[in-house]
Design the sequence.
């Protein structure tokens, strides 16, 4: 082979490499932040599973204008420092937006960073009112605590004739539990009920849950409302049931995961919760998603999986429909209306959302609608 032929072949090979690079479009970078370890891992993992399904479906349709969506995940470990480091890592990657976080305390931590870096946070499950009505970069696909707390207060006063409550409130996620407790108390006492006492506890204080149960029953309220994650709520319910088999137990939507039912066992039976998910829905998008989720993960999607998928749908819709040079946050707010798995999702000019609320009760290990 002559030198000239060798050079020409080398140039041709280089051109093939360049051409191959042109056929491999750069990905659209998006991020996910959630608790993927520890006591709230069921929430973060469930949402991430839903997000992955939504992104994979869109990539099979051609991504965004032929560019595949690439998801980078970070575990906030429910630790403010870890959450900040996770956010900065994703922001440095120039992600278009971040799905998450999953809990209110993490959202309050990250919202100022999102504003400073102009990176949208689209939370599947955060409900604190501390971030409501603000012109910021925090967005969400479910309503704030007032909607769930007021629905719960009205139901238990009007439908169950419960006249008094004691509230157990996790202090590790106070951005959420303080909002919920205040909203419930205001609505319930306006109807004529009485919140006798609010007892604080800290997530993970396993050895002290028996003492907490005794304190709750010593308040002599007609019912107990537990504001905590699934793992803590399950153990508290078990401790209360060891002492009293009949006192009505109520949880907030934070605890209403499939893991709660599994961990609480028989103690979960008869527990009421207000939440945004209808597990009996016959909406075709939800039915198809649930079937796929079950096949892939051998688990029910629960509210976290559904909300994760919906948050990803909002993000994907905004990526597809934004104007040239438009920030993702601004695109979401401009579009406003999105299609979720169980119906429409409306996001207002402050990034706050509304959707129907259902009162559920656990019967035979399953969440059943009462309304």
Sequence:
């Amino acid at each position: 082979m002559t030198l000239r032929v060798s050079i020409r072949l080398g140039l041709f090979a280089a051109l093939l490499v360049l051409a191959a690079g042109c056929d491999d479009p750069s990905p659209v970078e998006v991020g996910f932040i959630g608790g993927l370890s520890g006591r709230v891992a069921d929430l973060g993992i469930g949402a991430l599973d839903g997000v992955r399904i939504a992104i994979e479906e869109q990539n099979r349709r051609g991504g965004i204008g032929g560019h595949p969506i690439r998801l980078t995940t970070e575990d906030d470990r429910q630790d403010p420092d870890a959450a900040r480091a996770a956010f900065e890592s994703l922001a440095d990657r120039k992600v278009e937006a971040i799905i998450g976080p999953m809990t209110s305390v993490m959202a309050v931590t990250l919202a100022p960073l999102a504003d400073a870096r102009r990176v949208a946070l689209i939370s599947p499950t955060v409900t604190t009112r501390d971030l409501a009505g603000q012109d910021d970069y925090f967005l969400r696909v479910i309503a704030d605590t007032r909607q769930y707390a007021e629905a719960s207060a009205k139901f238990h006063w009007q439908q169950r004739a419960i006249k008094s409550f004691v509230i157990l409130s996790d202090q590790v996620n106070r951005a959420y539990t303080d909002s919920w407790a205040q909203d419930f108390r205001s609505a319930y006492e306006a109807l004529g009920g009485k919140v006798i006492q609010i007892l604080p506890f800290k997530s993970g204080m396993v050895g002290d849950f028996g003492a907490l149960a005794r304190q709750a029953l010593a308040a002599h309220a007609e019912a107990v409302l537990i504001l905590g994650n699934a793992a803590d709520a399950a153990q508290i319910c078990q401790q209360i049931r060891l002492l009293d088999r009949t006192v009505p137990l109520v949880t907030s939507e934070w605890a209403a995961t499939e893991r709660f039912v599994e961990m609480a066992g028989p103690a979960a039976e008869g527990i009421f919760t207000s939440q945004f998910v209808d597990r009996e829905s016959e909406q075709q998008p939800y039915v198809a998603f649930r079937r796929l989720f079950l096949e892939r993960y051998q688990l029910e999607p629960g509210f976290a999986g559904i909300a994760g998928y919906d948050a990803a749908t909002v993000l994907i819709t905004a990526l597809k429909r934004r104007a040239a040079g438009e920030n993702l946050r601004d695109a979401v707010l401009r579009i406003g209306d999105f299609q979720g798995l169980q119906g429409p999702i409306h996001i207002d000019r402050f990034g706050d959302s509304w959707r129907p609320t259902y009162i559920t009760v656990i019967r035979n290990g399953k969440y059943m609608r009462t309304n």
In short: The domain at 146-275 is CATH 3.40.50.2300 (Rossmann fold). The longest helix spans residues 3-22. The longest strand covers residues 194-201.
